[in-house]
Structure formats: C-alpha cells, structure tokens
Amino acid sequence: MRVAPQVVLTEEQQRTLQQWARTRSLPWRQVERARVVLLAARGKQDLEVAAEIGISNQKAARWRKRFLKFGLAGLKRDAPRPGRAPTITSAQVQEVVRKTTQEKPAQATHWSTRTMAEAVGLSEKSVRRIWHKHGLKPHLSRTFKLSNDPAFAEKLEAIVGLYLNPPEHAIVLCADEKSQIQALDRTQPGLPIKKGRCGTMTHDYKRNGTATLFAAMNTLDGTVISMCDDQHRHQEWLKFLRVIDRATPSGKEIHLIADNYATHKHPKVQSWLAHHRRFHIYFTPTSSSWLNMVERFFRDLTQNRLRRGIFRDVEELILAIGQYIDKHNHRPKPFVWTAKASDILEKVKRARKALDNG
Prior knowledge:
Layout: H1 11-22, H2 28-41, H3 46-53, H4 57-70, H5 73-76, H6 90-102, H7 113-120, H8 124-134, H9 152-164, E1 170-186, E2 205-218, E3 224-229, H10 234-247, E4 253-258, H11 267-275, E5 279-283, H12 294-306, H13 314-330, H14 341-357
Parallel strand pairs: 1-4, 4-5
Antiparallel strand pairs: 1-2, 2-3
Helix pairs in contact: 1-2, 2-3, 2-4, 3-4, 7-8
C-alpha cells in the first residue's frame, strides 16, 4: 500500500489550523482543507482522512501535497488554472487594432463593433474586448485647435506670468463678452422630477430676444464686474471699460486680459486706453480663448443658470444673470491656474509634430 507523505506542524501552524477548522466566518473550502491537514498531521492516511471528512481520496491527497509545498498560504486559494485555450489568434487581434487605427470603413467615418466584426470575421463581443484591452474608442472624437499666432509664445508667457506671479499693487482682470445670450421660453411647461424620472422640457422653444454680457473677473479673489447690453460693438466695450475704471480703486494698476476681437482693438478704444495709463491690456493668442479664465466663469453661468432657464423676455434674462453674479460675488471663489507656460509650449510642440507626421 502506498504511504502518504508525513505532515509535521509547528506550534503556530497547529494553532492557526485549529482556529480555521472551528471558525464560521471563513469559506467552507478553507475550513475543510484545514481539517484535512490536521488529520494528516495526526498520522492518518488519505483514505482515512477522506472517510472521516466525507471527501474523495484524491481531494485529501491534493491538499496534503499543497500544504507540504506551499504551507498555510496554499490552503487559502485554489491553484491557478490554465483556462480555455484562446480561439482568437494574436494575428487576428493585431488586424483589428491595425484596421481600427489606420483604416476607415467604406461609406462611414469610423468603425463600430458591428462593422468591424463583419470586416474581420469575429463576433461583436470579441471586437469590443479587443478595443477595451488596447484602449481604443473609435466612437469618440475630441476637437482641438492649434494657434497660428506668430507671437504665441510671447503672449502665452505674459498671460501665464500674470496668473502665476501677479504684480504687486495691481489688479489682474480677465475680461470678455458673452454675446447673443438668448432669452428662451419653452413652448410647454416642463415636467418636474419624480421617482424614476428626471426633469423634462420640450425640445422646441420661443426666442424672446438676446443680450450680451460683459464680464471682468478678478483673478485674485474671483469677484466679477459685469454689464449687460443689447449689442457688443466698440461703443459697448468702451462703456464697460469705464465701468471697470469706476469699480476699481483709482490708485491700482489694471492688467486686463482680453481676446483678439476687433472691437477690443478699435481706434477709439486705443485712444481711450492711451488716456488711461493705468490700464495695461494683454491680448490672448489667436484661437486661444482657453487662456482667458473668465471663459470658465461663462461656462458655469451657462451650465448652472442659462441652459435650463425659462425667460419670457430680455429683462427677465438680464435680471437672472445679475442675480447669479451677485450671488457669486457674495461668496466668490477664484479659479487657480496651475499650468506653466513651458509645459503648455511642450504640449503644443508635440501636437504640431503629430500633425506634421500625420
């Protein structure tokens, strides 16, 4: 008769296995394995262990060998299994990746799981798993715009320098206009939120006029100086500059960041700035409105107050904007700029290189 290998336990192993065998909080399989090893340590053979616990001889022999090879750690989990042999070859996987990244389907702009599955002869689920594994998302697309401004680097460094190292005894303002804000009224009242249903509104609407918001955000404390008007010509921009002049302490220098809109460079505006020496204006590079932090405030205004708003006339729209800004100024929160100019320039260089290589 074949004799099973002898099991010898240390005091610590004996104590641990006894705790496992008595506990009710561990998985039953781990309790069962502990009992197998304890009986084996008492000199019992696999047949005797199997009969006492009520398991097969092979199972008793397996966990005796596993303990002798791996110790207590070998009883906590099953051994890794090889699993089913893969039915999709590496060549097929590479073909899916190649077609996804280098080709487009006929009469379509991008691949779907169904069109790719048909093209390579695999199932839709297999294509989805391959895309997920390689981080491919052909159904998504993001827009980008690289500035062609020849003075991009100089303007970038000047504006980022104002954000990261603002001058002393001066105010840095990010100014811009949000034009053509529509006073929209829905054709029917919306349905309120209820359990199992989000709020709803009709997709069609009535236009009740437009307004333009002029805003200048203080980068230090986040407060906003604002003005609403019907148009956004150089006359309104000049009026807003006068509002800024009155709303800020007269002894402070004003560093004003604005975009390249022609209104901001009108000769009459330039003449006014020449007579108000404390104003220093910095123009963002072309196609780089993201450098102006007031755009972030406009985004919050649109998201939180305008997009779902109901306005029966322009006056109601202007009142809502004013109330939102008043509440913002009551507890202002400045946006913190963290990106260095050198990091942005490196990213732009990589983008240009990718475009040139494409």
